[in-house]
Amino acid sequence: MRTLMVSLIALSAAIGTAQADTLGEAMVSAQESNPTLAAQRQRLRATGEALPQALSAALPQVSVSGGLNANDRDYEDPLVVDTGRSETWSAQANISQLLFGSGRVLASTRAANAQIAGARADYEGARQQLLLDVTTAYANVRQAQAVVTARESNVSNLQQLAEYAQAQFDAGVVTRTDVAQAQARYAQARTLLVQAQGNMAAAVEAYRRLVGRPPTDLQAPPAATGLPVGLAEALETAVDNSPTLISAQADTRLADANVSSAAAQGRLSVTAEAGYSLGADFDDDLSESSNDSVGVRLSVPLFQGGAIRSRTRQARALRSASNLDLAATQRSVQEFVTNSWTGLASARSAVQSAREQVQAAELAYEGVRLEQETGLRSTVEVLDQEADLLTARIALAQAERDLVVAERQLLAAVGTLDIPAASGGLIEDNDQLRGR
What we know:
Order of helices and strands: HHHHEEHHHHEEHH
Strand content: 5-15%
Structural class: alpha+beta
CATH class: Mainly Alpha
Radius of gyration: 37 Å
Largest sheet: 4 strands, antiparallel
Mean pLDDT: 89
Strand order of the largest sheet: 1-2-3-4
Low-confidence stretches: 1-18, 428-436
Number of strands: 4
Number of helices: 10
């Protein structure tokens, strides 16, 4: 246990002596280095290629090919003249252009734009979730440090009380019971201090996982800006900015485009085609020949075993499901925003109450100690008041942590959580995605 305490104290000292860090700087570091968000960014870029792939069907399709062929034929019939080995070559070039596709290209383009919009919303949701997780980890580290500080103060106070009780016992003022009570509380406080230091180490590692580096003397986060002034405003903001809702809306547009795409597969397509081929025998220059072709190809599926109609019905069912999912998402977002709003109001009230509780507990503790010295209070009463003071300090640390998280959670719920503008180091948007 002594080794664990030494390592935890060294960790706390290292955190306290390093350069100060702010919540905005932690967010910047996480956004720049977090591998989960980087992977999501690459998926967004991959999805962005859906649009040029969809548009390619409306552009000319050009292909060239060539081949070499060697042929050696032997005849068993002596009356047939053996022509020997022949070597030939050929080359072809073809071009085609879709003239009319019954809405195929338009449907695939709409689907691609919807995919990109959904991917961008998913990325933004992942980014805001990361920022909220960083805020939580940041607040957890500060809370853990405050708890450790409170328990260290508790251990120090209880040590003094135990020593005072022993001195009083030696002077014949108190009984052995008073000494035992003080020593028991002191031993318990040391155990709880070690547990608090372990919790702080776990909070530090969670912070390191998200941010990419250990915390360095975390400063008190400022009050969040841009918070809605009322629940109605929060709900209206969420309608326009919630990544979850925007992604669900994009899914409905994608499902609608898929219905059009499936239905278009059973309709007429018109394609203009042209080709040129050239070939000859290597041993006979006069054998060279060429062929030109130009035409229009019309294609209409007449019977596909019912596959096209089945896919269309399937796409329509999925479109209905997507619309229902959107309705469910709207309800979920409304619930999340409402709960976040009420949670923020509760957190603000809790902080105020906890601060008043700490002030009152500190005054009460000082008073009880003075009264103990004059013989008006027993050792147990002082120990109980010390426990009340510790409880108040831990409650304040919890309330301050909850307030920091509640403010950013409300911003994330309405879709406006972002890195503070003064933090610097924001990632520039170089994705160059089409169809935004």
